[in-house]
Each structure stands twice: as C-alpha cells, then as structure tokens.
Amino acid sequence: MDPRSEVVIRQSASLKGRVLFINAPADTLLHDLDDQIQSTHWTWNYYDHQAHLKQQYNSFFSVEFPAQEFDQVVIFTPKSKILLEYVLAQVASQLKPQQLVFLVGEKKGGIEGAAKQLQPYGSCFKLDSARHCQLWQMALSETVAAQPLQAWIKKYTIQAPDFSFEVCALPGVFSQDHLDIGTAELLPFLSQVKSGKIADFGCGAGVIACYLAKLNPANLIHALDIDAFALKSTELTFQHNQIAPEQLQLQAVTGIQDAPTDLNALVSNPPFHQGIQTNYDASEGLCRHAKSHLRPYGELWIVANRFLNYPQLIEQYFGRTTIKLDQNGFKVMHAQAFKRSKK
Question: Which of 36, 46, 201, 279 gets the highest tally of CB atoms within 10 A of its CB?
C-alpha cells in the first residue's frame, strides 16, 4: 500500500460522511476505511481511474470537481504546485465553511511546502507524520468564488517556417508555460512525417498534435495521454487555433496498448515521470510495441534524452533505427515498419 494511504488510515477516525479522495493512488485504501464513509475518487490519471473502477469504487476522471456534494475532502498532493493551487481553489468553491480538507503527501514530494498553500483558505495544522509522510488538516474559513477553467490556461506561441499557433496549457501539464527542449528539437522533422492517420503518444498540451494538424489539413491526429489535463489542453489548443474538430481524436490511455492501430505514423516525446517518481515503463513500452500499431511502412518518430538506450530498443523490434539528430542532450529517432518479406 502507498505510504500516504497508510497515514490516512492511521487517522481514519477523523473521516466522516461523504468523502472525496482527490488524486489518490490505485491501492486498497478504501477497503480499509470504515464502511460508514461514503467514498468517491476524483482523479486525472486514467490508469488510477481504471484501477478504481476495477475495484468497484466510485471514480471520476475529469479536470473539474465532481458535480456532487461532499462533507470532507482528502487531497493527495500532486507534483505541480500550480495544479495543487487549482485543486484547492476548486475545493474551496464547493465546500461549505468549517468543512474539513485533509492534505497528505511525502516529505520528499514537498508536503511541507504544499501545506503552506492551505493557509489562505483556513486554519490548518499537522495531524500526523509517519512513513516519511505528513497529513494536514484544514477547516475551510469561507466558500470562495469559482474561477472558470479558462482562467488557469497559460499560453505561448510556436513559430514554424510557414505558420504559427498558440499553445493552451492547463495546470500540471508538462511544460505548461514554455516549449520544452526535446519537443523543440523534434518539431523541424515533423514535415517529414508520413501524412494520414497519426498518433501523438503523450500529447501534453498538444504542441506536436497541433503542429501536425497545421502541416496538413488531411491529417487525422489521435492525441493520446494518461492525463485528463493534457487531453483537455490539447482540445483547447485545437479550438483556440480554429483547427477543424474533425482532425482531432482525443483518447485517454494507460499505455501504448490502448493506442489505435493501422497508423501511418506514431510520434512522441514520451513521458518518463509518474508523479514524483521516474518511470520509463510507458516510453519503453512504446519502443517495444509501436510497430504493432503501424501500417506496413508506417513510421515511428521519437525524441528522448540521449543517455536512454531507445535506439537499441527500437532496433530490436523494427530492425533499424535512424538517428536524425543528436544535440542539446536529445536524440531524434526514426524507424519504419517495413513489410515482412514472404518466405
């Protein structure tokens, strides 16, 4: 069990009524709580959402507070401070004065700093400290006015040789307020990507997806991500730049196994973080299984840190990998799913 959940269980006597668990991990926490607690999950992680549903928990996969009333809220601290700020603002706009908000997180994940973000909303104190985690309690002083989702968007401009567009990114999305180096290295090669049915795996705020859509109005872009904030950001980026909605298919995924098949191309600046932890499962899985999602002669384009062994891994499954660029700590890699010759 996640150590943060263990700390919540230690103080489960403080939980009463209809409790909303926000960003909770996919473990057995709810099985160990009092049956009198009416629990609900709100998560933006599709893997956790699917795991909650599999355990028959009530779960919402969304960027917005569930449209229900709750007596208490337990927030598992997200990695992003601005995302926590957004979540707290959502909570404070939905709960009533003096209702309790609990915040739990790991010390190495910055729970002490996160606890300071509670202070503008009411009186708070440390309820428990164990398993290298802390649990804080706050009584909401007053209900605050809800801010629309649009108020949380950060925008920046992408300049291509023949066009430009604005990126719309929500809290917690990778590189929310600037173009990251890896994607910047990949963008000049997108004009070489085979047109048609294309997937952007780990779409983030939609930089790659939007670029590909602008390059060719005939491209159908499948934007894939585990994160609801990323998917919504990509949708907002397409809408803001007045790209035809027919060009975009949004899809929540737990990994490459959920991606569509029969693709002309699969493009990615693959993720390698799960919360505060480094996790290469999704990106390594992409290298191993991308070929099965491509048409014959379909293409895989990846940008990744140069120290990762992705070229060798891709070569195992495609037979050949071409390094298109190696600079600024990143490699742009290309592979093609050649049709197998008949024996």
Answer: 201
